Amino acid sequence: MGNFVGSIDQGTTSTRFIVFDKRGNIVAQDQKEHKQIYPAPGLVEHDANEIWRNTQEVIQNSMRISGLTREDIAVMGITNQRETTLLWNRLTGLPCYNAIVWQDTRTSTICQQLEKGGLRELFQRKTGLPIATYFSGPKVKWLLDNIPGLREQTLRGEILFGNMDTWLIWNLTGGVHGGIHVTDVTNASRTMLMNLETLQWDGELLSILDVPPQVLPRIASSSEVYGHSSSPMSGIPIAGDLGDQQAALVGQGCFSIGEAKNTYGTGCFMLLNTGTTPVHSHNGLLTTVGYKLGIAPAVYCLEGSIAIAGALVQWLRDNLQIIDKSSDIEPLARTVQDNGDIYFVPAFSGLFAPHWRSDARGIIVGLTRFANKGHIARAALEATAYQTREVLDAMLLDSGTGLTTLKVDGGMVVNDVLMQFQSDILGVPVVRPSITETTALGAAYAAGLAVGYWENTDDLKANWKKDKEWLPQMDAEKRERLYARWKQAVEKTMGWIQPQ
Predict the structure, then answer these.
(1) pLDDT recorded at residue 500
(2) Whose CA, among 147, 198, 401, 460, lies 20 to 30 Å from 67?
(3) CB of 238 within 8 A of CB of 228?
(4) Cα torsion through 78, 249, 190, 140, rounded to 10
């Protein structure tokens, strides 16, 4: 067996390949961004072929730069942007359409019709999810309804559905030459098509959304050998598959009930381990599968999903051009003492948890002649922290357990201004681990467990080390005053988009 574990981290904005050793240290990595396609307001797409090319490139580059060979790699795992939906032809290997990204809102009419049909309670009970444009099922329906001839091809068994994990595993294991069509329970739990109790596709839900069962991948655990790669690293077992947020939960070692992590990436996602029984939310959270390691029972989570976090910094960089690179946001925010009473609610694709309002759109409120770009930068960072507070409040109501510490990871956790404000607005310590690439690490852990590279989760927990901690410095009265202003701003975003 090789000495290292490889992990493909296929994210919303880029694809990475990271190689880890037994202690969870990074020994090789490479990363490549892919194009964000915006055909119209509210629509977001990716070129799945570009993502597959980038995946092959980052694997080859990281191996070349580090001098590793395929003999050094024991096993590979995959983690992926969840809900992003692709249909492709299994005979040609070609996508039928661009991948429809999780942020895309084109399925709002489909979702409104499901709501009007009184189906909210059914979907919530069976899948743990609200009816929302976020999830894959309505996107599959949209593609089948709108691409000429696609439904007929699907009924003939020529078309396959998958999120990015399924697309990459299929290509890695041979593609048109016998590629494995599989997903794991965490990704399947984000489709609005899987029953949370049985962990299988649900016939009633497939019928409601008019999705033919032959298009769907097999649902497997998050940690088992799915197949062996044929290219670009032939013969290596592919044995880990987790949606990115669940992978971060595993990478942070949150294996006990009540442990939570928050990932600050394109969006922001807080997951709380609730054990082997699903806890249904009454406060706008998702019930989702956290992980299933081999034949062990599935572990469930409550999740708060925030659509726009790091994406807001990218928007300031690319659309407004008030910064040259994302890392410029912190020094710009430090040029002012506070937010100047400006609040920025980035409801660019509606509001996700805990509101679930697809009629909301982004706003900046409180503007005066006093305001400058420093205040806008600070308000943009604070938006992520406020949205996290909204999610945490909902988690406490649903779970009844108070959070003592928040474990954090993702690209934004290098930002001291944001992390200090996060601790202040929550009133709890915020802790960053020494290895912040927890998403890729979680997929590596799942793969390594499947082949005995690591023996059990105790081995993984032993790898977790604290790098930095932020303690609350804000008094309670100020904390609640600022948070009340935020909630006032959120109210003003709603009802902007009128139903068609």
Answers:
(1) 60
(2) 460
(3) yes
(4) -30
Burial class (CB in 10 A: 0-12, 13-18, 19+), 478: exposed
Contacts of 50 (CB under 8 A, 6+ apart): 34, 35
Asked if 89 contacts 161 with a C-beta cutoff of 8 angstroms, the reply is no
Any bridge partners for residue 158, and if so which? Answer: none
Tokens of residue 124, six digits: 């919530």
Task: Give per-residue pLDDT as tens, 350-376.
Answer: 898 899 888 899 999 999 999 999 999
- Give the whole-angstrom CA distance, residue 49 versus residue 83: 17
Q: Which residues contact 481 (CB under 8 A, 6 or more apart)?
A: none
Q: Write the single-letter amino acid at 77.
A: G
Q: How far is CA 67 from the centre of its chain?
A: 31
Please confirm whether the linkage preceding 232 is cis (ω < 30° from 0). yes
pLDDT tens, position by position, 288-329: 999 999 999 999 999 998 988 999 999 999 999 999 999 999
In the numeric block, the tokens 């960053």 are attached to 432
